[in-house]
Amino acid sequence: MMEHGTPLGIGIVGVGGIALSHMAALRTMTSAQLVAVCDVDAARAAEVAHAERCAGYGSVEALLADDAVEAVIVCTPNMTHEALGLQVLAAGKHLLMEKPLAMTPEGARAVADEAAARGLALAVGHSHRFTDQSLAIREVIDAGEIGTPRFVRVVMNGGWIWPGWQAWVLNPELSGGHSLHNGIHIVDLASWWIGEPATSVFSVGQHATSEALEIHDYLVMELGFASGASAVCEISRGERPRSAGYLELTVVGTAGVVSRTWDAEGVLAWTDAGLTAWDIEGSAARVFLRELEAFVAAARSGAEVIPPVSAAIHAVDIAAASEASLREGRTIAIGAPA
Amino acid sequence: MTASLTIQPGYTRALAAVRSAEIGLLRAVALDVVSIGAGNALRELGTEAIDVLRAATGPTTVDLQAHSTADGGATTFLGRAGRGVVVSAHLSIVEGERREHLRAAIRLVGTHGSVLVDLLRPRLDVRTAAGTRQVPFGVPRADAPLGDAADTLAAIAESARSGRTTSITW
Known about the structure:
The structure holds two protein chains of two kinds.
Chain A: E1 8-13, H1 17-27, E2 32-38, H2 42-52, E3 55-57, H3 60-64, E4 71-74, H4 81-90, E5 94-98, H5 105-118, E6 122-125, H6 132-142, E7 149-158, H7 172-175, H8 178-194, E8 198-206, E9 218-225, E10 230-236, E11 245-253, E12 257-260, E13 268-271, E14 274-277, H9 283-301, H10 309-328, E15 332-333
Parallel strand pairs in A: 1-2, 1-4, 2-3, 4-5, 5-6, 7-10
Antiparallel strand pairs in A: 7-11, 8-9, 8-15, 9-10, 11-12, 13-14
Helix pairs in contact in A: 1-9, 4-5, 5-10, 8-10
Chain B: E1 2-3, H1 9-19, E2 26-37, H2 41-57, E3 61-68, E4 74-80, E5 86-95, E6 101-110, E7 113-118, E8 123-128, E9 131-136, E10 144-145, H3 150-162, E11 166-169
């Protein structure tokens, strides 16, 4: 991946939690290099820049003016995505946007149109497509072992509620709601595995941690597909005990079932936190490395981004419709994909 | 009509946990049943599935949306039962000669904990050079009479056909 001789110069906007995962992956890559970071907290940007041995800026404008920055990863809160995406693309930089692409279907299409008009790579951080288990399930489906997929159940439940009432994620005006913030990961998986866009969504949610929550920290989304296939996508941040973590991925086809069970990694631990299933060392790091390698390939050689932009837009369509379903208590039809 | 999933020993224990609030108050129930066989999944598996779900929630009204494949081989529904309990179920039939379940699992989520029950256990995993097989153990399964769920199943089928949510009572 070194056709250009030099690594792709990457800038990161926003150096919060998810940016750290991208930085860790970049440290292991030869095809890309972190050259600059920026944050509204200029001191934090300077601190990270010092540790990462790159330039640090207190504004997006300053980062985009840096000629060493060829591509940008946007790691800021959801409500900033559309405007920042358009700004990055207008500056002529390739863009890897953390999910969601935007908070509205219209916003997602606006960013995608800008990238297409400028001939720039646009990828969206649907990182769950790059996990070991997600790729393995897709391989089983592609091999035809379970026949035609007609049901997906994805469960990603945990008790790690976001820290404090001031957290932007708890504000639906800023995050778009749980469907858009985390739910978008699993509806994308479901649509990918079923192999077609969803045509409807019906969602049921709860305020599990506190009645005062404005988002649904426990959320179940049922997707319908034109073929008659369906999916149930469940995500929670409100489990008790808080240490509870439960992951299940199941695809049922016309000829069989493939399932990634809670204890699939084979590591069960009894600790003060109770019985928990542990991840395998390094599995999380591989996710971001694969995601970034795909993005670099798209930026350098025009390879198709993963997931395709149309799928990232569709994921916003589903998630936005899910929030509408929660508000209105009915099934919401989803229009044709972009 | 008889079936055995509702009285599977692990599920009986899990239901006791719900009734004694070991996992707090019930918040959600998720059931998957996939069987080898032939025919319409809702017709073949639906009555027993409703029996299993009713055992967890008790008699209740559920506002749900269902989906079915055109051949009836798979049906899924998601609904909101009384007191906001979230109920989801998937039923499907994989065509084949052997009449057995490929998967039957239920998860009960409470305000203070969760229980996951593999309704096909208890069984031993026997692994040899010739392959892997499962050997049931414990008290032989008994069959129990099932309640009538005809109206409920008809309403689920209608929701799948119309694409609209419906209200049922089980």
